[in-house]
Design a protein that fits this description.
Elements lengths: L12 H14 L6 H11 L6 H27 L2 H27 L5 H21 L15 H12 L8 H11 L4 H27 L5 H29 L5 H19 L1
Helix pairs in contact: 1-2, 1-3, 1-9, 2-3, 2-5, 3-8, 3-9, 4-6, 4-8, 5-10, 6-7, 7-8
């Protein structure tokens, strides 16, 4: 199921479309879009080339651009929020730049890392939802997030350099621990994704983009646009969902996927 053995194929347009759909659905959920892209590419038996690794990074920017469409106008009206987002981006930018090559060359090829991260992260999410209780004094607006909170959230986001951890889960749990309301930290997580993925995609394409063929850029465009369109729907659904539910279902989902995957590859 997750093993590399067998005949591996180059990516097709249909596969690029499927990966774009997976990215659009999972980017803003606490289940790790990168982890799901890695697992999906293995299930589709796509060859683990440098292009595939860059593809898995770049199409995430497509999903992130849906945030710009939905929040861009209101964001431009609030310099305070922009500064908080940029402050939160700083730790991720520094740590991501330092460990970029290690992540891409080693961790992005490790299915076991993804599965263990999903499994352990699911348990953490379940325990967190079991014992965390939001107070009436929780920070309820983006403008009221402090720089100290923003920087700490950025450190939490850096944990998502490990595939399977989930950028959304790390930032949301970090924000909730810091006393920020659930809806507010989810929205902040959306916004923080903009500079994070712009930087990640820019750095990756700067290092590897010159080697891509026209066909590969075409596949990248298919995945990019698909992720963008699907994410527009996913964001609206998640904001509606969190007003009535916790993230417990996502915790159980992570445990199930990670656990079954580990059983398959370890037996």
């Amino acid at each position: 199921m997750f093993v590399r053995n067998g005949t591996l194929r180059l990516m097709t347009i249909i596969q690029a479309l499927l990966l774009g759909i997976v990215e659009g659905i999972t980017e803003f959920l606490p289940i790790s879009s990168t982890g799901h892209l890695i697992l999906t590419s293995h299930l589709l038996q796509i060859s683990q080339t440098e292009f595939l690794k860059s593809f898995e990074v770049a199409i995430q920017l497509g999903a992130i651009l849906s945030v710009v469409v939905l929040y861009g106008q209101s964001l431009l009206k609030s310099p305070t929020v922009i500064l908080r987002v940029l402050a939160a981006f700083i730790p991720t930018a520094i740590i991501g730049f330092i460990f970029h090559d290690i992540v891409k060359e080693i961790l992005l090829e490790s299915v076991q890392t993804v599965l263990w991260s999903l499994f352990i992260g699911g348990i953490v999410l379940l325990l967190f939802e079991r014992f965390h209780h939001e107070t009436s004094h929780a920070t309820a607006s983006l403008e009221n997030i402090t720089y100290k909170q923003a920087l700490t959230i950025g450190l939490f986001q850096s944990l998502a350099l490990v595939p399977g951890v989930s950028r959304a889960a790390a930032t949301i749990i970090g924000g909730l621990l810091l006393g920020i309301s659930r809806k507010t930290i989810v929205e902040f997580s959306f916004l923080l994704a903009i500079p994070t993925m712009l930087a990640a995609t820019g750095l990756d394409l700067l290092k590897t983009g010159a080697s891509f063929t026209n066909q590969e850029f075409g596949l990248l465009a298919v995945g990019f646009v698909t992720a963008f369109l699907v994410a527009l729907i996913a964001i609206r659904w998640l904001l509606s969902y969190i007003t009535k539910h916790s993230f417990t279902v996502f915790g159980w989902y992570r445990v199930l996927v990670g656990g079954i995957g580990l059983v398959v590859i370890l037996l």
